[in-house]
Amino acid sequence: MMTPTATTSVRAELVEALQNPSTGSGRTDMTLLDVKNLTVSFNGKSVVHGINFSIKAGERVALVGESGSGKTVTALSLLRLVMNAELHGTAMFGQTDTVDLISIPEQQLRGIRGQDIAMIFQEPMTALNPLFTVGDQITEVLELKTPLNNTIASVLPALAAIKLIASTGIADPERCAKSYPHQLSGGQRQRAMIAMALACQPKLLLADEPTTALDVSLRLQILELLADLQKQNGMAVLLITHDLNLVRKFADRIIVMENGHIVEQGDVETVFASPLHAYTRKLMDSKPVRDVVESTSATMDSRLRGNDSMKANNLRVGYPTPIPGFKGWFKKGEFVAVKGASFDIPQGQTLGVIGESGSGKSTLALAALGLLAFSGNLQVSGQSWGASKTADKTLRKQVQVVFQDPFSSLSPRMTVGELVGEGLLVHAPELSAEQRQTKVLAALAVVGLAESQFAGLLNRYPHEFSGGQRQRLAIARALIVEPQLLVLDEPTSALDVTIQKQVLQLLQRLQRERGLSYLLITHDVDVIRAMAHHVLVMRQGEIVDSGSVQQIMASSRHEYTALLVNAGI
């Protein structure tokens, strides 16, 4: 049993460690990790082919490439976290007493995981245990890994977690420590993951797409947080990402992977200024390009002028909420998600809606689709939702949606023919099976999918296609009923930069050829620049700024708009 004096000593040591983390000297010339001829195979088939790279102490390195390039497998293999992987080569870790991460016994590697090398996973909602509070999960790391053994858990469990959470900039660390993961926002969950990873002040942090699921402003905040904590602790960071804007702002050096090979590496300024490999140049050139019919063009077809595909006036959407106490027995409270939104979408044009999570963007999209009750006036081609079942059925043909993640929005039990042709069963029941198949094939050809490319295309299932191809299937599914307006809910955020550019080019071409209107929900400023004619900026349910894309991107004086635009540069 610890004496009061010993307890006081441990308490003081812990508080000092949490309040004043080791500041380190930052980047040095000493190599911390040296990977030689690393090969990762599954059942004898290599997915990472003899790669070589090194990371210096205190250095920030970005590992970039498209999905399937081998980035995440490489990082996970350093800690031997890939199931059934066959590893060859060496990964020497340490500055004095080096060890080979590939060949050391599992028990010795277990002592390195979390303590000397920590990892931040891409999706904190799946990485965090839903059955334990965030504070308990951080305390568990301290119990297992800190040199004070179990004294931290027995003396100051709450203080330890709270101090670590506070170091990540969360406004209310006490509440966060007592919360379960589902009770926190995406940004708070990611900060909690960072606090857990930094609990033992690791020498190397592996950050696997730590900002992909976050809003553009939160991305910048998390990146700045990682940079500050990296300087304080003197640790090295390996950032795995496909976001080149983040790489330019964060990394000292960049490593480019393609199909399991490292094709180029060097300092960020040199590689961005003059990339040597064709694949690197392809990634650099994947920024969305604006190719739309401008609203001021004198050559615009007359059918694109004067008609509004959608018009809203004082649109309001609220959700019932419980009232605590006995008053809640008799009535409900209300949370207003969209407060008096007014806008119009001319035919053949795109209205972009940007804002952080919780701003009301998705609620606005659901109201536009007629899936949420609302007050105010919302018209599609001059007709309001809710007039009658027959009228609503006609409107549902006019307004279709493309969701963020096609893998979850397309039924895995339905074939391509069934998925794409499903809308015809509702809106064109008079068609024969042969006529439906003809229309399905035509819709697939429009989005760049043909039977000549994919044998037995109509009988395939979604899992047999890549992410970009699945999104093309989702677009074909929406187009087959010939709508006037597409609601695009983050249509490219789950895609690699090169695939994102291809999908945006497809949407731009369809708009030019068919006069389609788009309600585009996104947090990607580059997508807004490439696609939108007009922009709404939403914050906490209100439209705080609006105007043409040129006004919003170049000369808006609203503080919140400037924050979003600058964070996306």
Globally, the shape reads: globular
CATH superfamily of the largest domain: P-loop containing nucleotide triphosphate hydrolases
Task: Output the radius of gyration.
Answer: 26 Å
Q: Cα distance, first to last residue?
A: 57 Å
Average pLDDT metric: 84
Q: The CATH topology of the largest domain, please? A: Rossmann fold
Q: What is the number of beta strands?
A: 20
| Residues in helix, % | 25-40%
Report strand order across the widest sheet.
6-7-8-3-9-10
CATH architectural type of the largest domain: 3-Layer(aba) Sandwich
Q: What is the helix tally?
A: 23
- What are the low-pLDDT stretches, counting only 5+ consecutive residues below 50? 1-25, 149-155, 297-305
Number of domains: 2
The biggest sheet, with number of strands, parallel, antiparallel or mixed sense and barrel status, is: 6 strands, mixed
CATH class term of the largest domain: Alpha Beta
Produce the secondary structure layout.
Layout: H1 4-19, E1 31-42, E2 45-56, E3 60-64, H2 71-78, E4 86-93, E5 99-100, H3 106-112, E6 117-120, H4 124-127, H5 134-145, H6 151-155, H7 157-166, H8 173-177, H9 186-197, E7 204-208, H10 216-233, E8 236-241, H11 244-250, E9 253-258, E10 261-267, H12 268-273, H13 278-284, E11 308-321, E12 333-346, E13 350-354, H14 361-368, E14 375-380, E15 383-384, H15 389-398, E16 399-402, H16 406-409, H17 416-427, H18 433-446, H19 467-479, E17 485-489, H20 497-514, E18 517-521, H21 525-531, E19 534-539, E20 542-548, H22 549-555, H23 559-567
Parallel strand pairs: 3-8, 3-9, 6-7, 7-8, 13-18, 13-19, 16-17, 17-18
Antiparallel strand pairs: 1-2, 1-4, 4-5, 9-10, 11-12, 11-14, 14-15, 19-20
Helix pairs in contact: 1-7, 5-7, 9-10, 17-18, 17-19, 18-19, 19-20
